[in-house]
Every structure is written in structure tokens, then in C-alpha cells.
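Because showing beats explaining, we think one record worth quoting, sequence and C-alpha cells together, and here it is:
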Amino acid sequence: MKKIILFSFFLLTFTAGFSFAEKSSASVNMDYLSKAKREKYVEDFSYVPRRNYNTGKQIRDMGRRLGAEVRYQAEENKTDYPFSSGYPDYKYKASRVYSSGSKSGADVVYIGRRARVGTFKNLNRVISGYIERAYGISMADADQIALKVCYWNTNHYNDASYFKKNFDPRVSEVFRSRTKSIGLSRSYKDWQPARVVIPFTIVKEIVPEVKEPLKPVEEKPAEVAEPVEEKPVVETPEPVEVQPEPAYEAPVSKTRSQNMSEQAQEEESFFQKHKTLLVCGIIGLLLLLIILFAVVRGSRRD
């Protein structure tokens, strides 16, 4: 029972640090797009001058900048009318219209007169880049949704009554001063200017907000009896037998007689080594003296 009470107390302390808030985000309304039928478009495959050429990524990034700005205005700035002029601003623009009552809301992407988009592939890249950043989804998913968005807009091209019936009136009014057409034509010649409608719905999420948790009540520690001081027991160390160090032995010096004996041995060794030379030298000297004696005696007789 005590464990259950303690667990409940800590659980209450932990969860008291949270409060819950409602967060709203937009999501593409697939109820409309799921009914889209495939379309075939007339495209422009003529030569594009190098000064007007853009890579696939550059074209996609134009849509991404639009979508990122609209999402920022909607979720961070909480603007009632999120809008993006894009870059370059004379090519593309975008605006978000929230739903009112039973009518749906939608994002409207405006394709300017100087956009120079002539192929469906590039047009789909712009819309995909917008959806990717405006709704925070992957590029692969955005490509599939963008394809349905374009088909759906072509299915209802310039169908003013359809958009008026299903969407907030402002959807039909956004960028109307720039072009009266709404939806997407089958021919690239009518894409500049044009308005592409992307239906969306608001998704509300319950998100916990962290607050400072309640501080638990500090419990006073139980009183503990003071310990009795005990005198330490002194143990007498056992005697250690000390081994005596060996006595130092001085080196014995050689005596004089030993030195003389060694010297005599060295002299005898020297005499033995040079004995033959000495004998030969003496014999040679005697022969020399005999020869000299003979020569002197011969000279006297003459």
C-alpha cells in the first residue's frame, strides 16, 4: 500500500509539469484530389536560350520558397492571410485562404506572365516544391500529390461555379486582378498567367507544453541515535627478523714479489720470442769479424 501511494505521488508530480495546447497545421485535402482524372497536355519543346535555362532543382526551389514562406506566415506569425511573393517575385506568387463555415480553404499559386514554363514536367516541379515545404512532406510524396493537383485543376479549368460552391469566396478572388482564369488549361499557352488551386484542411493536434514541475515536499529525515565512540584497539606489531648485511670485502692488492714475478715472466717470454734472432745476429757478427781479420792480415803481407 505504501508503494502505491509513493508511485501516485511521483506520477502526479511529473504530470503536473505539463499542460496541453492545441496546435493547428494544414494538410492537403485528398477528398477532392482523389477524384481527379488523368489529363494530357500540349507542351512547348522549342529551344530554350541559355540565359533562360534553369535546372530541375532551380525550378523546384522556386516552388519551395513560396511554400516555406506561406507556412512560416501561417504557423509562426499566425497571419490571417499568409502570402508569399516568391523569388523572383515577377514569376510566381502564393496565397492561403482559410475555410469559412462549410466551405473549404485552399492555397492559390499564381503563375506569372514571365514564368516561361512550357512543359508539364517543369510545371509539376514548381507545384511539388510548393507542396513539399508548405505542408512539410517528402519530395516523393509531394510529386505524387502535385500530379493529382494539376489533373484536378485541369478537370475544373475555369469552372467558376464549382470553385464558388465548394470553396471560400476569397479563393476565386485571389490574384483575380492579374488573371480571370482559374484552374489549369491543357495547353501551355494558357499557363501564363494562371492560378492553380490546392485544397487543404486544418488538422488540430494536442501538444503538451512543458511547465515548471511542482517541487515535491521535502521529508524530514528520521532521527538517528548518535554512535557510541569506541576506542581503537592498538595491535602490537610482530618483530621482524633483520638479516645482517654482508661485510664489505676490499679488493686484495698484489704484492711486490708477485709483480716482480710477473715482470720476469714477461721478460722470459720476450727472450724466447727473440732467441732465434739473437743467435743469428751473433753468428753474423762473428763472421763479419773473421772476414775483417783476414782482410787486415792479407794487406800486411803485401
Summary: Confidence is low (pLDDT under 50) at residues 3-21, 212-217, 224-240, 245-255. Residues 275-301 form the longest helix (27 residues). The chain is about 40% helix and 15% strand. The longest strand covers residues 194-210.
